[in-house]
Design a protein that fits this description.
The structure holds two protein chains of two kinds. By secondary structure, chain A is α/β, with parallel strands linked by helices. Chain A has six helices and 15 strands. Chain A has a seven-stranded mixed sheet, with helices on both faces. The chains are: A alpha/beta, B alpha+beta. Bound molecules: flavin-adenine dinucleotide, iron/sulfur cluster (SF4) (2 copies) and FE2/S2 (inorganic) cluster.
Chain lengths: ~260, ~325
């Protein structure tokens, strides 16, 4: 018999980490295989479902970092530790760490785009011997919008971190300017072999990839993650389709050689 | 086996089948047209062959039997989610050759594009097909162009001739039923058409570059993004999830999926006001290229089956087949 993929399971909120007024990480009870870059459909009866990336993976839990923007996500914020949310998944391909092992790695992430790559950053922070030099360029709008503040000190110990804000005053902690500003000065040993991951709002991804290509990165060494409307996560509802590609099945992570061909 | 049967013999078979199956066939719903009070031919349950409309093409396809317009997936109570019950009976579906080819497309989408769909599969496993032969093609049909004019994978076929129904039956128990009835045996081949008035040519050099052509702009104003072309299409499968509550405060309700259309506003809307393909011309391009280009890139054969229903239903007289026939020039435009 075919499994019923539509019926969600109920998962307890183990912990809530508040980053900003509208962005919290919900640590959800979960056991099973899951990769960074994959996502769950989180739902609340009566309000509906929303696709949410895995921002952290641990023993018996997954982290979901949720931005409160509408019907479902507002209602999620009415829930707290000990309450339960409905979930189904994980869905999507996620990041394949093998693509980055043994290589110079650049990760460029903007805003909530840090969520899906947080697992990749953490992995290569803890397993620095499994890659060459690593640089993280993380951009947020302002000090108020900073996510994963507690991760940065550890990340700074393990890799080159450029934390930048769109506006405000420069401090020892962060610079001012868009993420793209730091691409031309990236110190690279061999750009022809270096790999990069770019995740964030569409315009940010477009300009960052452009910057990387201008630096001499090869298209096949760049990965991006796409977002589209999704109602099923199972390759059925059609909302996420672009050309012959279903973002929920074939993505959301794409090598740039494929990602660049998608015309909405 | 081939048989010739009369109305009462056929109805005896229908009556017998109704013990285990619901019988779905095109029938006339008086005043049931969506945008005026003229009659509408669409699928419904029948209990007598006299109710089946054979001389016209149904405006809507058979797909609602397998993928209902609105389908309850499960019920919520405060404590749990309870799966909705399947239909009590299996289904016998009367359909034409183009639609039987459309069933293959539904199967590939629901059973093979990602994990198999539980709700589709549990209906699909219990259907039988009666192929309605086509003696003539209708005005808008282009099944020959799409290679869908001939079908073999039916359980029984039916041709409507003067006063008799000619059957070609592949189901062993049904054969026995007609033999027991004393139906006369004949050689029967399902009626099929070998040419259509409408001919469609999909350029062999078609690529997604055609998106850059100016041809799509004419649809920005002409198309009113009503989505009827998607709803009548036997191969369109998109849906949206919807939660429904019986009363405002109650903790009980259900999650459904309902038909969705890539032509209609909201299909790509994401939180915060973002949306893709805002112009109707872009939506037309997305739909047309799905039917005659990118479905094939994914599945190896074209999605469109040439039933022509989208041309018949469009309130703005936009013709899909004309549009496809313009793709050749559009490719010249973008490659020059
Ligand atoms: C693969 C993927 C990963 C995501 N990861 C995260 C994440 O980690 N954290 C986070 O806060 N948000 C994430 N989003 C965006 C999040 O899904 C939307 O913000 C959420 O669906 C908004 O739902 P809502 O009901 O609160 O908003 P509303 O504005 O009330 O409703 C938006 C409607 O669009 C639907 N929708 C479907 N897909 C999307 C989408 N991609 N973007 C926006 N709306 C969508 C919603 O289900 C809902 O029906 C992700 C989206 C995708 C596709
Ligand atoms: S498209 Fe072909 S198979 Fe379909 S109704 Fe018309 S003639 Fe019959
Ligand atoms: S092409 Fe015609 S039927 Fe389809 S959405 Fe546009 S106006 Fe409606
Ligand atoms: S989310 Fe439904 S097909 Fe991709």
């Amino acid at each position: 018999m075919v499994r019923n993929d539509y019926i969600p399971f109920s998962s307890e909120i183990l912990e809530v980490i508040k980053h900003t007024d509208i962005e919290y990480t919900f640590r959800m009870a979960f056991r099973g295989d899951v990769k960074p870059g994959q996502f769950f459909e989180v739902s609340i009866p009566k309000y509906g479902e929303a696709p949410i990336s895995v921002s952290g993976i641990g023993d018996g839990f997954v982290d979901l970092t949720i931005r409160r923007v509408g019907k479902v996500t507002n209602e999620v914020f009415e829930h707290y530790v000990g309450d339960r949310l409905l979930m189904r998944g994980p869905y999507g391909n996620g990041f394949d760490l093998e693509n980055y092992k043994g290589k110079e790695l650049i990760i460029i992430a903007g805003g909530t785009g840090v969520s899906p790559v947080r697992g990749v950053i953490s992995y290569f922070a803890e397993h620095a011997d499994e890659r060459k030099d690593m640089t993280l360029i993380a951009g947020f709008k302002s000090v108020k919008d900073l996510l994963f503040k507690d991760d940065f000190p550890y990340w700074r110990e393990k890799m080159n971190v450029i934390l930048t804000l769109d506006s405000g005053e420069e401090t020892t902690e962060h610079k001012i300017g868009l993420v793209t500003k730091y691409i031309p000065d990236l110190k690279l040993q061999d750009v022809s072999k270096a790999v990069a991951i770019v995740v964030g709002p569409p315009a940010m991804m477009r300009f960052s990839v452009k910057g990387l290509l201008e630096r001499g990165f090869r298209e096949e060494n760049i990965w991006i993650s796409h977002e589209r409307k999704m109602c099923c996560g199972l390759g059925k509802c059609g909302h996420c389709k672009v050309n012959d590609t279903y973002i929920c099945l074939d993505g959301p992570v794409f090598n740039y050689t494929k990602g660049k061909t998608l015309i909405d | 086996m081939g048989f010739h049967v009369n109305e009462s013999q056929f109805d005896a078979w229908l009556t017998e089948q109704q013990k285990t199956y619901d019988i779905y066939a095109p029938k006339c719903f008086a005043g049931g047209n969506t945008f005026s009070d003229v009659d509408c031919i669409r699928y419904g349950k029948v209990n007598s062959i006299s109710k089946i409309v054979f001389d016209q093409k149904s405006e809507y396809s058979f797909k609602e039997v397998l993928t209902p317009i609105s389908q309850t997936l499960f019920f919520f109570t405060e404590e749990q989610c309870k799966e909705a019950d399947p239909p009590k009976k299996g289904a016998i579906i009367f359909l034409r050759s183009c639609d039987l080819h459309a069933l293959k497309r539904l199967d590939d989408m629901y059973l093979h594009n990602g994990p198999a769909d539980y709700y589709y599969k549990r209906i699909r496993d219990n259907i039988k097909i009666v192929l309605i032969g086509c003696k003539h093609s209708f005005e808008s049909c282009f099944c020959v162009s799409m290679g869908t004019n001939i079908s073999e994978n039916y359980d029984m076929s039916i041709n409507v001739a003067d006063g008799v129904y000619e059957l070609n039956c592949k189901d062993v128990t049904w054969n026995q039923f007609f033999l027991d009835l004393g139906a006369s045996r004949h050689l029967v081949v399902p009626d099929q058409v070998h040419e259509n008035k409408t001919v469609v040519k999909i350029p062999v050099n078609l690529t997604a570059d055609v998106a850059r052509s100016s041809m799509w702009e004419q649809y920005n104003k002409r198309c009113i993004n009503c989505g009827r072309c998607n709803f009548v299409c036997p191969t369109c499968t998109c849906f949206t999830m919807q939660d429904l509550y019986y009363t405002e405060n109650a903790k009980v309700g259900e999650r459904r999926r309902v038909w969705a259309s890539c032509m209609v506003d909201g299909f790509t809307d994401v939180a915060g006001g973002g949306s893709y393909r805002k112009k109707n011309g872009e939506r037309m391009r997305f739909k047309v290229l799905h039917k005659v280009l990118d479905y094939k890139q994914r599945n190896g054969y074209h999605m469109c089956v040439g039933c022509g229903r989208c041309d018949d239903i469009c309130p703005e007289y936009i013709s899909f087949s004309h549009c496809v026939n313009k793709l050749g020039d559009a490719m010249k435009e973008v490659t020059k």
